[in-house]
Design goal:
Number of strands: 10
CATH superfamily of the domain at 1-76 and 196-252: P-loop containing nucleotide triphosphate hydrolases
Oligomer: single chain
CATH architecture of the domain at 1-76 and 196-252: 3-Layer(aba) Sandwich
Largest sheet: 6 strands, mixed
Bound molecules: adenosine-5'-triphosphate
Strand order of the largest sheet: 6-7-8-3-9-10
């Protein structure tokens, strides 16, 4: 089953005006169900634009976007995906638990069920003791885990992440990468992940999609086949070979 499918997608901002920008040109992309795909490329190559098209936050100028076999708009209405961006985007006046419950409230899930689901998600990201805290009482890494718990609360088949770990220190980042992989494996979630980090893309992904700027295009798709997805993978020859392959693709 296909989680995401883009065919012939272009995106032009401010069309017909002096400040017209072709952010994406003729992009084809397929993400299979359960697959983890990272988008990497220079600043301004259209990574966030691509993610926002999948999330139906903006519309393509040309081409089609399908999520779980449905048009992107229908998939958004039926909450086929969860989103986590660089800034955790939590509501400061809501407790951690009530932040995670928010998408369930919007879906009109009954209170008891909401509470249970929020607890389940907080346990999944290792924050079961922090449900009653407010976001300001948590570290950046913990806030990011709350954002992931919230994105997963409706059990979406697809997770869209835009540099979710960009603001974190290297150690926290590596720990969260590991946790994210475990969560995705446990829940069978497909993921599209935007990053600037080659090593992050390689460690996390089944496939790294390399993009170039002006206009934004996909220039390479590199399949990653690591012997495992635990910390030892970061020492494996396959990991270093894949990093080299992605670096070369970014340069060429
Ligand atoms: N709402 C908008 N209006 C006009 N131009 C936009 C808009 N959003 C993005 N762009 C332009 O589209 C291009 C792609 O932007 P986008 O944010 O997708 O790049 P990116 O690869 O995510 O960049 P970065 O790595 O710096 O986050 C850029 O030239 C940007 O200026």
């Amino acid at each position: 089953m296909t989680a995401v499918s883009l065919a012939g997608v272009s995106k032009v901002f401010n069309q017909g005006r002096a400040d017209e920008v072709t952010a994406l040109s003729d992009v084809d992309l397929t993400v299979d169900s359960g697959q983890f795909v990272s988008l990497i490329g220079p600043s301004g190559c259209g990574k966030s634009t691509l993610l926002r098209l999948i999330a139906d936050l903006i519309e393509p100028t040309a081409g089609t976007v399908a999520v779980a076999g449905k048009p992107a708009g229908q998939a958004r209405r039926e909450q086929e995906y969860g989103i986590a961006f660089q800034q955790a985007g939590l509501f400061e006046w809501r407790t951690v638990r009530r932040n995670v419950e928010l998408p369930l409230e919007l879906r009109k899930i009954p209170r008891q069920r909401r509470r249970e689901r929020a607890e389940e998600m907080l346990t999944l990201v290792g924050l079961s003791d922090f449900g009653g805290h407010y976001p300001a009482q948590l570290s950046g890494g913990m806030q990011q885990r709350v954002a992931i718990a919230r994105a997963l609360a409706v059990h979406p088949p697809l997770l869209l992440m835009d540099e979710p770990f960009g603001a974190l220190d290297e150690m926290t980042r590596e720990r969260l990468q590991h946790e994210l992989l475990q969560i995705c494996a446990k829940t069978g979630t497909s993921t599209v992940f935007v990053t600037h980090s080659i090593s992050e893309a390689v460690f996390l992904s089944d496939q790294v999609v390399v993009m170039s700027a002006r206009p934004g295009r996909i220039t390479a798709r590199i399949d990653i086949d690591l012997p495992s997805r635990d910390e030892s993978a970061r020492q494996s020859p396959a990991y270093f070979d894949a990093i080299t392959a992605v670096r070369k693709a970014l340069r060429s």
